[in-house]
Fold:
Amino acid sequence: MNTNELSDTAAHSLTELIDISERKGWCTRPLCTTCGALPFRKSLRGIAREEVIAGLRLLTSQFLETHGNMFRLIISETAYFPTGGDLVDPLAGTPAGVQLVANINHQDLMSERKAAYLAAQAPDAVARRRAEKKVARALATAPHRDKKSLYLKATKDASMLLNATSTNELLDMVISRDLGLPLRAIGGLVYTRLHKHYRTTPITPSDRVNLAKLAETHSGHWKKLLNQVC
Structure:
């Protein structure tokens, strides 16, 4: 940069710097990874801190709405603390002060969220969530497990009773007695036994009537058995 360029970009106040930066199209992004906003920052560092604060006090709300990056960059370069908390009092009662407090609150919120996220990823927190989910799943599936357990017990009890009944009396018993299971399910328990029986023994008229009723009402194995023996 030659002498003329240096004089052309020299600023003695924040207002002058803003005019120069907009005329030159300088980058004012606080965390620019391309240029680091170096021209703006170098020029800003050439202005006395008191002059910068005085310039900040003159900024309007309209300017701050459209120059958020520049404002944050100025604060980061001027403040003694990372969030700019030491500038809250000097800027009190101005649009810049209001914007600074809003920025600090936002930064604090982001920090709290990050801390909460990191805490949630700690091994003990992850283990606790997994344990809680396991308990929740157990509670949610308890009714289903209980229902399944009762159904299995009823199936076992019905099977024992059916096995203790002679084949000749099987259909009469199924028709006349509540076995604690749907008759469609009972059909699956006795199908093989009755099928073998009727292959060697002609079906009786009463069994035919009972089987027809079961096939019509409950279908499934009863209907299949009726089609095979009648």
